[in-house]
Design goal:
With 657 residues, the protein is an alpha+beta fold. The protein is built from 24 helices and 24 strands. The strands form six sheets. Strands 12, 13, 14, 16, 17, 19 and 20 form a seven-stranded antiparallel beta sheet that branches. A hairpin with a 2-residue loop joins strand 13 and strand 14. The longest helix is centred in the N-terminal third of the chain and has 20 residues. It starts with a helix and ends with a helix.
């Protein structure tokens, strides 16, 4: 992170502009994730240099400006925003800070993705509705609020009261609205939040009425006026008055239950009829809230957990090239660090030259990234409208970045064909000892690279020769008798691994972890596999032409390596159970929800042992969905597609047979 006054000033201008676009124009160009990242960076700089803080810093303000076409309303009590947390560690830190002052219980609420509203009633009748605005001054939207059917015009009791909540548009109404706009040739709205915000700011209340907006009420600013002691009681009180209070609110005893609630709704959010973007966590007792107090911007007794973004925007600063174990040279994006699905991402794969060119990616672009398969970050699109003319055109490397050998193109990828390229050899060695391959514990990337540079490791065979150098290795800096003995013991243990681990560790092109298991289960021992023909291999389910060709070529060219590994005493047979069952064999299963008797990994292993395959997503090819407690959207998708569904008890009964 750059820490200087120029960067601080740049962040202030970015955030102030974003606030104007978001609150005034209803046309944000920054995503929520970008906004949160810039705000967190600004807060850190101001904490380190309080003497730099400007009077117009957005950290001193809650929201944006008020648009001039609506009457201004000054809130009796400020409508403050909440602080944000992004992962379990930050949630527990929030809890620890509170427990230094009080012993809390918490109320958990869904964070509705809409527009905040204040509603004022006199003698039980609605007299005013106002937006949050900048937190101090809002906009009078009474004429539009009265069109929202979930906001009562008259309460069940003739009392004076202010309540606060969230106006939103349901997913169905949003889709219907966009269909109408599409039929008229109008620009489609980006999301339900923007649609709701634009609807309540219409001068003509007939337009707002046609949008079918809804509202949940979640806050009572003056509970003392009604003798209410806790937030949970206030929610019930407002519900009894006739307000629409979200039914999924829970009172929990501790932070572990908060985290359980978060996990539940992270999985189930897709089945809700409206959008949520997180979970709100509030200390329940109002006396405790008073003790904890406020910062200048937000309450200390509440926070909002923001769901990990599935896709975020950031700047692509550079493109560099890396060499993999097969020699493939891959372009990789160097990014401005950004939070994605709970982790900070600064690199993302660009796959190959064709991928970069097809996406029209340039160095300096603002790009959208996501995690492929929820694991590997990748660039999915470019925001061309954000270009300013300083972007640079991508040029694919023509030589290996390590050994400078001229690259050769095969299919869509470029390869270093130098078998002595240091990077290729090191990557092969690291892969061989990795967790999903031979899993020789203790050999991290640094140790493998050090041993390579010292001459002890030049090929995978050398792992099984290291015992010869035991005394020499003990003398190396950072190593000793115990650490070297552990490494050698783990090498010895690896000799008893099942065949599929060895096959994966060999690094055969196109043969991944799952394919290695399929080959091992079908051929049982390596000699049978080495003698398999191309025609035999392609007859196996999930073994295609490219894999079959690669396997035949590998064993034709590497028989000496296999014989040498045999001489070291490595197991060459499949050690898993072969127990094919007709209810599982060649069928595809999906697991969703929490299983109580066994873990998901145990269930997956059992299914595979019985001849089945486990997938992460539901499709027409899915045979069975196994449902545990609190199933997510996969369950509803299976119902819609008419796919067979087993509960945990049915699954356990079938595997016992």
């Amino acid at each position: 992170m750059v820490i200087n006054m120029d960067r601080m000033n740049e962040l202030i201008e970015l955030i102030n502009q974003a606030n104007y676009e978001y609150y005034v124009l209803d046309n944000p160009t920054l995503t929520d994730q970008e906004y949160d990242r810039y705000m967190q960076e600004l807060i850190k700089i101001e904490q380190m240099h309080p003497e730099w803080i400007r009077n117009d810093s957005p950290t001193k303000r809650v929201g944006g400006d008020v648009i001039s076409k609506f009457k201004k309303i000054v809130h009796k009590k400020p409508m403050l925003s909440l602080s944000n947390v992004f992962n379990e560690e930050e949630i527990r830190l929030f809890d620890e800070k509170i427990k230094k002052e009080v012993i809390p219980n918490y109320v958990c609420e869904l964070k509705i993705d809409g527009l905040s509203v204040s509603l004022l009633y006199e003698k039980g009748k609605l007299i005013r509705g106002a937006t949050r605005g900048d937190g101090i001054t809002g906009e009078d939207i009474t004429h539009n609020v009265k069109t929202i059917k979930t906001i009562p015009l008259v309460l069940k009791k003739p009392i004076d009261i202010e309540v606060r909540g969230e106006i939103y548009m349901s997913k169905k109404n949003f889709d219907d609205l966009n269909q109408i706009r599409k039929s008229k040739g109008e620009e489609l709205l980006a999301n339900p939040r923007n649609a709701a915000a634009g609807s309540v700011r219409q001068l003509d209340s007939k337009i707002a009425a046609s949008r079918n907006l809804e509202c949940f009420i979640y806050h009572l600013p003056n509970p003392d006026d009604f003798g209410i002691k806790t937030h949970y009681e206030s929610l019930q009180f407002m519900k009894d008055l006739g307000f629409n209070v979200n039914p999924n609110i829970e009172l929990v005893e501790n932070i572990d239950e908060v985290i359980k609630y978060i996990f539940k709704w992270t999985e189930q959010r897709e089945i809700l009829p409206y959008e949520i973007d997180g979970i709100v966590i509030k200390t329940n007792d109002f006396k405790q809230q008073a003790i904890l107090g406020f910062t200048s911007k937000c309450p200390k007794w509440a926070t909002a957990y923001k769901f990990p973004a599935l896709e975020v925007l950031t700047k692509l600063k550079d493109i560099i090239f890396t060499v993999g174990r097969t020699g493939q040279v891959t372009p990789n994006a160097v990014l401005e660090p950004v939070r994605l699905m709970g982790s900070i991402i600064s690199r993302a794969t660009l796959h190959n030259e064709d991928y970069v060119l097809s996406k029209h990616i340039k160095i300096g672009d603002v790009v959208a990234i996501r995690k492929a398969g929820d694991v590997i970050p990748e660039v999915v699109s470019v925001k061309k409208e954000r270009r300013n003319g300083t972007e640079r055109t991508f040029v694919m490397a023509d030589v290996c970045p390590i050994c400078h050998t001229k690259l050769e193109k095969k299919d869509t990828a470029y390869y270093c064909v130098n078998d002595k390229c240091d990077k290729k050899i090191i990557e092969n060695l690291i892969h061989f000892v990795s967790r999903d391959a031979m899993y020789i514990e203790g050999f991290g990337e640094r140790i493998v690279e050090d041993f390579y540079n010292m001459g002890y490791l030049k090929s995978i065979l050398d792992f099984y020769e290291l015992a010869k150098y035991k005394e020499e290795l003990k003398e190396l800096e950072g190593f000793g008798d115990k650490s070297i003995n552990n490494l050698l013991e783990n090498i010895e243990k690896s000799k008893s691994n099942s065949l599929e681990r060895l096959l994966f560790g060999l690094g055969i092109r196109y043969v991944g972890k799952q394919t290695s298991k399929i080959l091992a289960k079908n051929y049982i021992n390596i000699d049978s596999l080495m003698n398999a023909s191309y025609e035999e291999l392609i007859s196996i389910k999930d073994i295609g032409e490219a894999i079959a060709k690669s396997v035949v070529e590998y064993f034709n060219n590497n028989q000496k390596i296999i014989e040498k590994l045999k001489s070291y005493g490595l197991n060459m047979s499949y050690l898993g159970k072969i127990n094919i069952n007709e209810e599982f064999n060649n069928k595809t299963f999906v697991l969703t929800g929490t299983l109580s008797e066994i873990t998901r990994n145990e269930a997956k292993e059992i299914i595979e042992q019985l001849g089945g395959h486990v997938s992460s997503s539901v499709s027409q090819k899915t045979s069975v969905v196994i449902v545990g407690e609190s199933p997510g959207s996969k369950y509803s998708t299976a119902l819609n597609l008419g796919i067979s569904i087993w509960n945990e008890e049915e699954f356990l009964n079938k595997i016992k047979k």
